[in-house]
Amino acid sequence: MNEKKFRICIYTVLFILVIVFFTKDFNLFSDFYKNIKQVKHPNQLDVLVNKNYQLPKNYMPSDLKEVSVEFAFEHKYLRKDAKEAFEKMAQHAKQDGYQIILVSAYRSYSYQDELYQHYVKTSGKNYADRCSARPGHSEHQTGLALDIMGENGDYNSFESTKEFKWMQEHASQYGFILRYPKDGYDITGFKYEPWHYRYVGKKLAHYLTENNITLDEYYFKKYGK
User: Which one has a higher pLDDT value, 143 or 19?
Assistant: First the structure.
């Protein structure tokens, strides 16, 4: 092999490695944000909102209630059932010596749009689509999703806290599931988020947790795509 061919081979290998590195978490053959359907029953507790099921722009739950500042930052709202379940869960965690704090709950369509555009502007569209939902595709708009942190005060490192371990053992007892599990990107379309939980009610939460399946898989099995 002459020097020219050798250099071409080296550059080709380097190019492939760069492509693999930057697309290792990106499913090139996914159907995310394709054939998008409008959510028909946004008030159902098992409602599926993801990259293929979109909420109406003007949708806002009618039963939003403010969560007690004992367990949340100020002015955080959840739907009534989710709010009551979260406060009960956080209270019981506190009694066990844990601190669970709500840092993000209901978000409007316009708020999500601003957040998504921020990620696009600062980190690019591919990154934005991995870590943030496009407007209308965020579970937070349902009023049933929440981001939490532990006593360390950093939701990004929630997985390393004792509160995370407590949530793994107890969340489903109060109707909550870890929405975006590890190695679940190809199913959910989102990277692992140990701080993001979703209220679905006790019965469904128990079923999903016991069977180790996502809400997406349950929905597709029950209703089909």
Answer: 143
